[in-house]
UniProtKB/TrEMBL annotation:
Organism this protein belongs to: Glossina brevipalpis
Subcellular location: Endoplasmic reticulum lumen
Gene Ontology terms: cellular component: endoplasmic reticulum lumen
Enzyme class: oxidoreductase
Pfam families assigned: 2OG-FeII_Oxy_3, P4Ha_N
Main function: Catalyzes the post-translational formation of 4-hydroxyproline in -Xaa-Pro-Gly- sequences in collagens and other proteins.
Family: Belongs to the P4HA family.
Main location class: endoplasmic reticulum
Protein name: procollagen-proline 4-dioxygenase
Cofactor(s) required, per the database record: L-ascorbate
Length: 516
């Protein structure tokens, strides 16, 4: 995730933002959507290298010209008068000063590489926008808070105690500080800005990116002021003034803070760290599932087909019913499903009851695509397999949904059912009844993070490629079971792909009767 954030940060800061009419591609919302950006960066680097080659050729020409003129001028130093007394030399001198230097000046001010700058503009619409960078920063902050990561360790590439070769630069940390400051998370903004200060180096590239240490000190002072720490803020703003003593705005702000520091009598704001709940502990891997009397079996009974080809099934809960199937997707099937889904991924949404429509929400960071059962032979086979796993009739139910999570991708606590008797808005949309069962296939291993947590059931399931989690959302009266509330933890490292099948209740009228 750090590498993805670094790439988004670089391409956003160094590019011109698209206009409001451009399509929002939501790169940070899906790992799959970020991989094409690597090709964009590769093309931009090639353009930059070609531009540099042209500049180098110009520099070489000027160096050769300067060397030749220096040699001519050097000959005149011993006897200047004798040198110009020679008509050939005097003619050459006058011609050089009257003609050559005018042409040299024109050559020096001539804009080089315009064609390469135009080539770069072609890629502007393929670059991340300010919204993408905001999504990426939100993802980093989500990982920081959910997994309780130390900022300095995280910036140095240490994630949950594991060292990675990627790290965040001073500019990256400053960008996080700016983002959190604007989000009014001043406490954490202070830490990011301080980390930016101690990691700042006077690299020449900072001049190109307009990244100055005084700018960090200035915002750090403002963040400290928001924490009711004017004396500390005065130290920070004084450092900024020392770096830019000519900056009238900084001088004025220093005077303001100095005045406030003299009359300040209240204590600094205290940050109260909230104890982690079961969801956060489950995401961090600090929770073990409650041992069950039932463990693993080969399922041979759900359908007659399983007598010939039983499935490995692990019981997780009797009430509500939940099992985990192992090795129910092959690598070839997963590859086919990904190829089918990648072509039409779009940003996932959440239904907003107040607006009665689906909206983009920070609690769901992923992209999805629908795959009808009859789309290919692979989807047909998987649909039949779901029938064998559940013993239910899947005809008339929703299509398969494939999903890929992004930077810090997660899905907050939610239910899969709608309680159609209470929410009549969904009655027409879900004419086949409520979602009685969820089948969640894990299509990838996730190096760190990405657990599925059921807080009320005290159950945590880690993503494992080829497994499928099955649970009942409705009780025997077809009313939603609140104990099935669950969440998808943020992906810390890796790419999480899942395939979901929701089975609706109406087609089960003869398969699974409703009990009063």
């Amino acid at each position: 995730m750090l590498k993805a954030f670094l790439f988004l940060l670089f391409t956003t800061i160094t590019s011109t933002q698209p206009t409001g009419g451009d399509i929002e591609k939501s790169f940070a919302i899906s790992v799959n959507s970020m991989t094409p950006l690597l090709d964009v960066e590769k093309q931009l680097i090639e353009i930059l290298e070609n531009y540099l080659e042209k500049l180098e050729r110009k520099v070489d020409l000027l160096k050769n010209l300067a060397a030749k003129m220096t040699a001519d001028n050097f000959e005149s130093l011993e006897d200047p008068e004798g040198y110009v007394s020679n008509p050939l030399n005097s003619f050459r001198l006058i011609r050089r000063l009257q003609r050559d230097w005018i042409n040299i000046e024109s050559f020096m001010i001539q804009q080089e590489g315009e064609e390469y700058l135009e080539a770069m503009e072609v890629y502007h619409k393929q670059m991340p926008t300010a919204t993408d960078l905001e999504d990426a920063a939100n993802g980093i902050y989500r990982l920081q808070t959910v997994y309780d990561l130390e900022i300095d360790a995280m910036s140095d590439g240490i994630l949950n105690g594991k060292q990675y070769k990627y790290r965040l630069s001073s500019l990256d940390r400053f960008t996080m500080g700016v983002h959190l400051f604007h989000q009014k998370h001043y406490y954490h903004a202070c830490f990011w800005l301080y980390s930016s200060l101690i990691s700042y180096r006077n690299h020449s590239i900072n001049r190109i990116l307009d990244f100055k240490k005084a700018k960090i000190f200035e915002l750090y002072a403002e963040a400290l002021m928001q924490q009711n720490r004017p004396k500390d803020a005065l130290v920070a703003i004084t450092n900024a003034v020392e770096l830019e003593s000519f900056n009238i705005r900084l001088l004025k702000r220093k005077n303001d803070i100095e005045t406030l520091a003299k009359i300040h009598i209240t204590d600094a704001l205290e940050y109260k760290k909230i104890e982690p709940d079961f969801l956060q502990l489950g995401c961090r891997g600090n929770i073990s599932n409650i041992p069950s009397k039932l463990h693993c079996i080969y399922n041979t009974k759900t359908t007659s087909f399983l007598r010939l080809a039983p499935l490995k099934m692990e019981f997780l809960s009797d009430d509500p019913y939940m099992v985990l199937y192992h090795d129910v997707l092959t690598d070839r099937e997963i590859l086919t499903l990904k190829d089918l889904g990648k072509t039409n991924l779009k940003r996932a949404t959440i239904f907003d009851k107040s607006q009665l429509k689906n909206t983009i929400n920070k609690d769901r960071i992923a992209k999805y695509s629908w795959l009808p059962h009859d789309n290919t032979s692979t989807t047909q086979i998987i649909a039949e397999r779901i029938g064998d796993m559940t013993g239910l009739n899947i005809s008339g139910s929703e299509p398969l949904q494939i999903m890929n999570y992004g930077l810090g991708g997660h899905f907050g606590e939610h239910y899969d059912f709608f309680n159609l008797t209470e929410n009549t808005y969904f009655t027409d949309t879900y004419s086949q009844g409520d979602r009685i069962v969820t089948v969640l296939f894990y299509m990838s291993d996730v190096e760190q993070g990405g657990n599925t947590v059921f807080p009320y059931m005290r159950t945590v399931v880690s993503p494992k490629k080829g497994t499928a989690l099955v649970w009942y959302n409705l009780n025997n009266k077809l009313i939603g079971d609140w104990r099935t509330q669950h969440a998808a933890c943020p992906v810390l490292v890796g790419s999480k792909w899942v395939l979901t099948k929701w089975i609706n209740s109406m087609p089960q009228i003869f398969t699974k009767p409703c009990y009063s």
